[in-house]
Automatic annotation (TrEMBL), chain A:
InterPro entries, alphabetized: MetI-like, MetI-like_sf
Localization per Swiss-Prot or TrEMBL: Cell membrane
Lineage: Bacteria, Pseudomonadati, Pseudomonadota, Alphaproteobacteria, Hyphomicrobiales
Protein name stated in the entry: ABC transporter permease
Organism: Roseibium aggregatum
Membrane spanning residue stretches: 12-39, 77-97, 104-122, 159-181, 201-226, 257-278
Automatic annotation (TrEMBL), chain B:
Keyword Transmembrane helix in record: yes
Positions of transmembrane segments: 12-34, 69-91, 103-127, 133-154, 175-196, 236-257
Topological relation to the membrane, as annotated: Multi-pass membrane protein
Coiled coil: none
Family of the protein in this entry: Belongs to the binding-protein-dependent transport system permease family. CysTW subfamily.
Entry GO terms, CC: plasma membrane
Biological processes annotated in GO: transmembrane transport
Domain ABC transmembrane type-1: 65-252
PANTHER family listed in its UniProt record: PUTRESCINE TRANSPORT SYSTEM PERMEASE PROTEIN POTI
Recorded superkingdom: Bacteria
Name of this chain's protein: ABC transporter permease
Keyword Transcription regulation among UniProt keywords: no
Subcellular location: Cell membrane
UniProtKB/TrEMBL annotation, chain C:
Cited Gene3D superfamilies: 2.40.50.100, P-loop containing nucleotide triphosphate hydrolases (3.40.50.300)
Originating species: Roseibium aggregatum
Gene Ontology biological process terms from the UniProt entry: quaternary ammonium group transport
Transport recorded as keyword: yes
Keyword annotations from UniProtKB, A to Z: ATP-binding, Nucleotide-binding, Transport
Molecular function via GO: ATP binding; ATP hydrolysis activity; transmembrane transporter activity
Name this polypeptide is given: ABC transporter ATP-binding protein
């Protein structure tokens, strides 16, 4: 055994590679998170922050109706967006993967996600243009006489959902397409060979095999959607607020960091629960 | 090949409807950026470049554009460098608690930008670091480094390790292995992570919004432009940003994927 | 005494609970072609890594050209390695790949390209300098890896399953070329493989390994015809085993009691005691069917259970009449031999039987 120890070299070299990234993450991700957790237990009296250990900010969430309502709104909007986006994107991705000739598929896909690259802020603004009272849709509807008065499309939950769905249809088309094309054509051939028609092949073979990919996309949609501030802020109007908007209100208007921190941590807890459920599902699926 | 074309009709119609939905806002945005009038809404009163001229002459917007480019390039370079070094360290050396280190490095991917930005805001406030472009850049490195790390780490397999071993066997020192073999060999991954970081940083709003004050990035400046309501100037600047992003994507496609396909 | 290229002394290495090398000692003469042969997990690749410097063993010493190299980094050793996946630098031209080691040694670019060119000509790839690795076929990449490793003029070249990724035909062709190149440059080659045909075709010396130990070591002919252990007899080619017990020993002649009768055998080198359990190992081509003679030991009769056509001959699986457990595999003529179900008398030439200790 002595020889074993003699030759074990203690080497600090490897740490030199990993340390910068670890320190960066520790200083600008872990530390702020701890600071936020501590601040969430502080109190704000008047305009001063007082260091204390109280769960008052968390209790406020359950006591004040508008905080709880914002969380409910966020969950509702996110659920509607996730389901709608998958329902719209799946057939679209399937058409690109199955019906478009192979040499045009890449182009079809690049086109399908091109508006992805409009600036995030500008994308919501563009929908405002489209949905505004005197915007293109209302003018078209008025023009063909379908309605007498412009519809209140903008500044509503519908507008928020449309703005979100627009973004996530593109994202999900990409992920679902990637799933569909990596599916070996032999599965389908085997199913057809064994007597399954196109519909049954799809239902019993293609859909189950792409389900994990759909779930990954759905989870991504959930996480990105529930944490987004811009889309509801630009399109949603003043009737209802979502969690990120409420959090930003605490920071922006009132500089109430303790409440904002508590709300942010509650939002993270919701996302974590969703993640654990998702991870559990994936594990069960693989087993 | 397709015997009964009419049976494809539902597919074609569906695809066209979705393409229409996806492109509607972009087309409206770009089209009315040429509006020869004060409102970016129908009817189109004629085509003009006056709003692009207005953007060009808007000192704050142009400054914000320059700021955005500086933050994107600076933060992406940092993110790629740190991501590459940590991926190399973790993939090539014996280190304790590797799983934990990997989890820590990729953890920011699962937290929303709003929360990351808020944490940094509160912390910088407490420590006394003023709001600035550098502060926003630090936040951008936090969100982009995990991505760079994950992309580069995934490309450092056993085969690549063997290639580095061969270089060492032939007499290369550690820095020569990294500069002459590892980095050039992983060039597509490094390039892809740099460009991805660039586009994310370029488009990022909430962290920049929270962490900058006087000098701001382009999305933040556009945000303040939105307060003036519907304005063709916003259309023009949005179209410019869209154009730049599309060029970036095409460059990425040509440089990385074409090359990748050849080998 | 010839010079020793490599001298491995009592090397042991464990991965967690798995013992990859268990007190291995061996010497490799300079200028020879040595093959490490064994199944996967036998420790042959670990041993190569220890010689190449990619692994520092937990105990024992490695001497290369009579100098202790146990702790020395790969770059500082007079060895270079040809990797199984070739490990060519994908972003460099073939010329730059071959010249890399020279560049690391500070040799100017002109001299470098001259020597790279000479090395590429040696492996039959003259003029391929400006190509990239992905433009070459598997066999060509293999040659580039060889040229790259030889360019720095190592005194020992290590080849880790170098032909493993090639198809059978190319493999046999590359074997011949490897051997020719080794003769030409005179460098000591150490080659790891699990293919016993490759080992026999290419090696001046074959080192058979199993479970971290060296089972046998010698010329291919000696190892094949007079295997030292049961493992070697089974791994190098095919063998049928017949258990027995030594009854009596007279000089170099022993009488062995087997289920096929009492046999008088010569066992010149090995010492067997009376009463010792032994195993007789017989190659398929050493069985004699339906013939008798002075030098032929009769083994009784057997039934043909199965016949496989092997081109130049048939291989028969037999069932011994007196002993169900003895199912020898014997070579039969290409045509006109016995049919399945027929009974034959079996014999073997006295000198062809190898007597081994029964290790359990």
């Amino acid at each position: 055994m002595a020889a074993t120890w003699k030759r074990k070299r203690i080497d600090l070299g490897p740490w030199a590679f990993v340390a910068p990234a670890l320190l960066w993450t520790a200083a600008f991700f872990v530390a702020p998170f701890i600071v936020m957790a501590v601040v969430s237990l502080w109190e704000r009296v008047g305009t001063d922050l007082i260091a204390s250990w109280t769960f008052a900010n968390y209790l406020k969430f359950f006591e004040r109706g508008h905080f709880l309502q914002a969380m409910v709104n966020s969950l509702e909007v996110t659920a509607i967006v996730t389901v709608t986006s998958i329902v719209l994107a799946y057939p679209f991705a399937w058409i690109i993967a199955e019906k478009v000739p192979a040499r045009w598929q890449r182009l079809a896909l690049v086109l399908a996600i091109l508006p992805f690259w409009t600036s995030y802020v500008v994308r919501s603004y563009s929908w405002l243009l489209v949905l505004a009272n005197n915007g293109i849709i209302n003018q078209a509807l008025l023009g063909i006489g379908l309605v007498d008065e412009p519809l209140d499309l903008a500044n509503s939950r519908t507008a928020t959902v449309i703005g979100f769905v627009h973004f996530f249809v593109m994202l999900l088309t990409l992920t679902i397409y990637a799933n569909l094309v990596q599916l070996s054509p032999n599965y389908r051939k085997a199913a057809a060979d064994l007597g399954a028609g196109p519909l049954r092949t799809f239902w019993h073979v293609v859909l189950p095999l792409t389900l994990p990919g759909i779930m990954v996309g759905a989870f991504l949609t959930f996480v990105l959607c529930i944490g987004d501030y811009i889309t509801p802020q630009v399109l949603g109007g003043n009737n209802e607020l979502l969690m990120p908007q409420v959090i930003m209100l605490q920071i922006g208007r009132r500089a109430d960091f303790p409440t904002a921190s508590a709300l942010a941590i509650l939002l993270m807890i919701v996302v974590t629960i969703a993640y654990l459920g998702f991870a559990r599902w994936i594990r069960l699926e693989r087993a | 090949m397709i015997r009964k074309p009419w049976r494809q009709l539902p597919s074609v119609l569906y695809a066209l409807a979705i393409y229409g939905f996806i492109f509607l806002p972009v087309v409206v945005l770009v089209l009315f950026s040429f509006q020869d009038g004060r409102f970016p809404i129908p009817p189109l009163k004629g085509l003009s470049l006056r709003w692009y001229e207005a953007v060009w002459n808007d000192g704050r917007l142009m400054e914000a554009l320059a700021n955005s480019i500086a933050v994107a390039v600076g933060s992406s370079l940092t993110a790629v460098l740190l991501g590459f070094l940590s991926a190399y360290g973790l993939a090539r050396f014996k280190l304790p608690a590797k799983g934990l280190q990997r989890a820590l490095l990729t953890a920011p991917l699962t937290v929303s930008y709003l929360i990351i930005g808020m944490g940094l805001l509160i912390t910088f406030n407490a420590v006394g670091i003023p709001k600035s472009l550098v502060a926003a850049g630090i936040g951008h490195v936090v969100i982009n480094m995990p991505l760079c790390f994950a992309i580069i780490y995934s490309q450092m397999g056993d085969h690549q390790a063997n290639i580095e071993r061969a270089a060492r066997d032939l007499g290369a020192r550690e820095w020569q292995v990294i500069t002459l073999v590892t980095a050039p060999m992983l060039w597509p991954a490094l390039f892809a992570s740099f460009f991805l970081s660039m586009t994310f940083s370029w488009d990022e709003f909430i962290i920049s919004f929270l962490l900058t004050r006087f000098d701001v990035t382009l999305p933040v400046e556009i945000w303040s432009l939105l307060r003036s309501g519907l304005n063709p100037k916003t259309n023009a600047v949005g179209s410019v940003v869209f154009g730049i992003s599309v060029v970036l994507v095409i460059v990425l496609e040509l440089v990385v994927f074409r090359k990748g396909r050849r080998s | 005494m010839t010079d020793l290229a490599v001298d491995v002394r009592n090397v042991t290495h464990r991965y967690d609970s798995f013992t990859a090398l268990d007190g291995v000692s061996l010497t490799v003469p300079a200028g020879a072609y040595t093959v490490f042969l064994g199944p996967s997990g036998s420790g042959k690749t670990t041993l190569l890594s220890v010689i190449g410097g990619f692994l520092v063993p937990q105990s024992g010493e490695v001497l290369i050209n009579s100098q202790d190299m146990t702790d020395v980094a790969p770059a500082k050793r007079p060895t270079t390695t040809v990797f199984q996946d070739y490990a060519l630098f994908p972003h460099m031209t073939i010329g730059a790949n071959v010249g890399f080691g020279l560049r690391m040694r500070g040799i100017g670019s002109k001299e470098r390209s001259n020597r790279a060119h000479r090395m590429l000509e040696l492996v039959g790839l003259g003029g391929a300098e400006d190509k990239k690795p992905h433009e070459l076929s598997g066999g060509q990449r293999q040659r580039v890896a060889l040229a790259r490793a030889l360019a720095v003029e190592p005194s020992v070249l290590l080849l880790d399953e170098p032909l493993g990724a090639l198809d059978l035909k190319l493999r046999r062709q590359m074997q011949a070329e490897l051997k020719a190149i080794q003769r030409e440059v005179g460098t000591s080659f150490i080659h790891v493989t699990h293919d016993q045909e490759e080992a026999m075709a290419i090696g001046d010396t074959v080192v058979v390994m199993s479970q971290g130990r060296i089972e046998d070591m010698g010329t291919p002919e000696r190892v094949y015809l007079q295997p030292a252990t049961l493992f070697t007899a089974g791994f190098m080619g095919q063998s049928s085993f017949l258990k027995g017990k030594v009854l009596e020993k007279k000089g170099s002649v022993i009488d062995v009691d087997t289920p096929c009768g009492q046999l008088r055998l010569s066992a010149p080198e090995k010492r067997f005691e009376a009463g010792e359990a032994v195993v007789l190992s017989i190659r398929p081509e050493h069985f004699v069917v339906d013939r008798a003679g002075d030098d032929i030991l009769p083994l009784g009769s057997a039934t043909v259970e199965d016949l496989t056509f092997a081109g130049a001959h048939h291989l028969a699986v037999l069932k011994h009449a007196a002993n169900d457990d003895f199912r020898p595999v014997a070579q039969m003529p290409q045509s006109g031999g016995a049919l399945v179900g027929s009974t034959v008398t079996l014999g073997v030439r006295r000198g062809d039987v190898v007597v081994l200790k029964d290790q359990g």
